[in-house]
Amino acid sequence: MSLGFLQPWALLLLVFAVIPWLRHGQATLAYSSLSQVPEDALSDWIDRGLKLMACGTFACLAIGISGPYLREQWVERIGTGAHIALLLDRSSSMNENFTGRYLGAKATESKSAMARKLLSEFVSRREHDLFGMVAFAAAPIYVLPLTEDRVAVQAAIAAAGGRGHGVTNIAPGLAMALNFFVEEPRQGSRIILLVSDGAARIDEDTRDRLRQIFQETETTLYWIYLRNPTSAPLAEKPANPNESTTPEYFLNEYFESLEIPYRAFEAENPNAMEKAIAEVERLENLPLPYQEKLPRKDLSDGFFATALTLLILLIGARTLEIKTWNA
Amino acid sequence: MSRLVSLPGALRIQWRTLLLGLAALLVTACLWRPEWPLPRQVFRYMVVFDITQSMNTRDYHLDGLPDDRLGFAKESVRAALHRLPCGSEIGLGLFTTQTVHFLFEPLEICGHFGVINDVLSHIDWRMAWSADTHVEMGLYHAIRELKKHSPGVRLVFLTDGQETPPQSVKPQSDGVAGEISGLLVGVGGTVPVTVPRYDRNNQSMGVWENADIEKPPVSTTVYSEKVVPRLLPSEGPYLSWLDEPHLRAISVETGLGYERLASPARLAQTLISPAYAERRPTATDLRPFMGGAALTLLLWVFGIDKSPVSRRKRKPLP
User: Residue B126's domain spans which residues?
Assistant: First the structure.
C-alpha cells in the first residue's frame, strides 16, 4: 500500500487509547451504597459510548501526530509534449557575445548566458516534456538523464554558465544524446535540441553510424545555430567550400541528408534565438502519453477533524454530568 | 473522601472541561496546518571530482568496492548521499586540466535522489576535455566559481593531488583563506604505482610512460612564484601517488579541511559533521507539537484523579 508516515514512531502513542477503558476520567461522587442503585442498561451503554469516544480521540490524535500520507503516485495522462535531449555547446567561443567579443566571465549578453536564459524559460513552459542534457566541448559530458524532474533540469541549466573550455567536437555529443533514446522504449516524439555556435568535421564512419541511430530511434533534430553576423548563412554555399574553414555548411548538409525531420534555426542575435525556440515549441506539440506525478497527499486532517468532533461531544457530555448528588 | 472536601467537586469538573476545551482548541488549530520556520541543520555541498587519468590508478584494495581511485571516490560520495539528512543539498562537478565544470547546482538529496545518483554513476574519465592536471589552479577556479554563484555552499574536492606535468610555477590564489569552507579529499595511496592507459572505448592500452608526459612549461613571468619543477625521468612507466604534502599545503592556503579518503564510511562521517552544517530556517510542521500537547492534556484529564472508584457489582441472577 502506498501509505506512509512522517513520524512513524508516534504510532506508539496509540497505546494511550486503552486508558479510557482503565480510568474513568470523571469526577467521583460519594454515595452510601452502590448496591441500592438500580441497574440501568441505558446508563451502561452511555458509559461505554463515552469511553469509546475518549478512546477514539486518543487514537485519532496519535495517528494525526504520526503524519499519515499517501505516497506520490504516477498517473498516466495524454498531453502535448516530447522527450527532449538538450545538447549544449560548452566550447570557449560560447562565452563571446554575438559580435564575437569576449565580455569576461560575468557578462550577461554572452551567447552562453542568452542560451541559458532562453532554455530555462523554454523548460518552464514545457510542462509535460522530459528533458535530458549533454554538454560537449572536446568530449561529451553526461549532465542529466532524461527526467521529469524540472528542478534538476533548471539546476543543470543554471550551472551551465561556467567558463567553457576547448574546441567543439559535435559527433560524440550527438552519439551520447542519441543514446538516451536507444535505452528507453519508444514513447512520443524524440527531439535533440542542439545549441551551438560552431561545428566540426565528422569523419565518414561516424557519419554513417550516427545516421543509422538517428533513423532507428526516429529522432527529430533541431539545430539552433548561434551564428556570428560575419559568418555566412548555412544555406549559402561558401565561395571556397572546405570542411576546415566552413564546417557549419557541411554539417548542415549532412543533417539534411539524414532523412529525419530536421530544421536549422540561425540566430545571429538574441531576438532571433528567442524566435527559434518559439518555433521549436510550436512544432513540437504532438500528443504524448506522459506520467504525471500526483503530489503526496496529507491524511492527518481527517484524523484531527475526527478528534475534534469527539472532543466536542465529550465536552458536551461533561456539561450533562451531575456535580452533586441531590437525591 | 477527604479530597472531596478540600477540593469541591464542581471546581474539579470545570477543570477537566477546561482541559478538554484547551485540547479542542489545539486540535482546531491543527486543521489550519500551522507552520513555523525553525532553524535546522542542513548541509550544502558542491562535490567536484578530479577526472584526470591518474584517477584511473588502481590502488584501493577494499572488499566489494572499486579499486580505481575515481570509482572509489564515487562510491564514497554515494555513501555520503545515503547518510546526509533530508533537506541537505548536493551539486556535482568535474575537474580536469585547470578548470572545473559544475554539472548542476546543489539539489535537495531526498527529492532528487534518482537524478543525483544517476549522474554520479555516469561520471567518467572520458568526459575530460583535456588531459593535464593542474590541481591547484583547478581548486582556485572552483573556489572562484562558488564565490560568484553560491558562497554558502561547501566545496568538496576529491583529487589525488598530483600535478601533471609537474608544477614549474606556483599559481597565485586571488582569494582569502577560508572564504569558501569545505574539504579537500586526498584520493589514492601514498605508494607510487603505474597509471593504466585506456583508449576511448575503455580498452586497456598498457600504462602511461614518462615519455608520454608533457614537459613542464617554462615560465617567463617575473611576478609569479617559481618552483623548482620535479624532473620526471625521461623513460620508464609514469608513477602516480597521493601527493599529500602538496594537498596539505593547498589546504592551509585555502582554509579548506584536508582528509585522506580511507573508506566511504569515514568520508560520510566527516560530511555530516556539524563543522560543515549550516543552520537554515526550514518551515516546520507544527501539528505534531500541537497534537502532542492536546494528547498530553487528554492524558491529564484521565490521569489526574487517583481516588479509587468502586463499581457496582452485578447482582447475581435469582
Answer: 39-280
Which of A20, A318, A323 faces B20 most closely, judged by CB atoms? Answer: A318
Q: Is B3 helix (H, G, I), strand (E, B) or coil?
A: helix
For all residues of chain B together, what is the average pLDDT?
83
Cell of B315: 447482582
Q: Report yes or no: B294 at the A interface, CB cutoff 8 Å.
A: yes
Round to whole Å and give the CA distance between A40 and A48. Answer: 13
Beta strands in chain A, from DSSP E residues, in sequence order? 3-5, 68-70, 73-80, 82-89, 130-136, 140-147, 189-196, 219-226, 262-267, 287-294, 297-298
Q: Which residues of B touch A311 (CB under 8 A)?
A: 20, 23-24, 27
Render A253-264 in DSSP notation, one character per residue.
HHHHTT-S-EEE
Q: Do the chains contact at B294 and A300, CB–CB below 8 Å?
A: no
Average of pLDDT values for B242-258?
91
Measured at the CA of A54, the angle between CA A51 and CA A59, to 5 degrees, comes to 125
Cβ within 8 Å of A, B 70-109: 91, 93-94, 97, 99-108
Instruction: Looking at the structure, tell me whether residues A201 and A143 fall in a common domain.
Output: yes
Cross-strand partners of A12: none
With a cut of 90, say whether residue A306 has pLDDT above it: yes
B301 has a chain A CB within 8 A of its CB: yes
Q: Note whether B309 and A27 are within 8 A (CB).
A: no
**Together in a domain, B159 and B233:** yes
Mean pLDDT score across all residues of chain A:
82
CA angle A106, B247, B117 (to 5 degrees): 65
Residues of chain B positioned with their CB less than 8 A from the CB of A325? none
Residues B27 and B140 in one domain: no
Could you tell me the CA-to-CA distances from B175 to A312, B144, B164 in Å, in that order? 65, 8, 24
Rounded to whole angstroms, how far apart are CA atoms A207 and A258? 9
**Cβ-based contacts under 8 A for chains A and B:** 185
**pLDDT confidence band for B295 (50 / 70 / 90):** very high
Q: Assign A189 a pLDDT band (cuts: 50, 70, 90).
A: confident
Binned at pLDDT 50, 70 and 90, residue A32 comes out as confident
Whether A146 is in a domain gets the answer yes
Per-window interface: A 162-181 vs B, CB < 8 A:
162-163, 165-166
Burial class (CB in 10 A: 0-12, 13-18, 19+), B45: buried
Say yes or no for a CB contact (<8 Å) between B107 and A16. Answer: no
ipTM above 0.90, yes or no: no
Q: What would the mean pLDDT of A28-56 be, rounded to a whole number?
A: 85
pTM, rounded to two decimals = 0.76
Q: Which residues span the domain enclosing A14? A: 3-71+295-320
Q: Are A197 and A94 spatial neighbours (Cβ–Cβ below 8 Å)?
A: yes
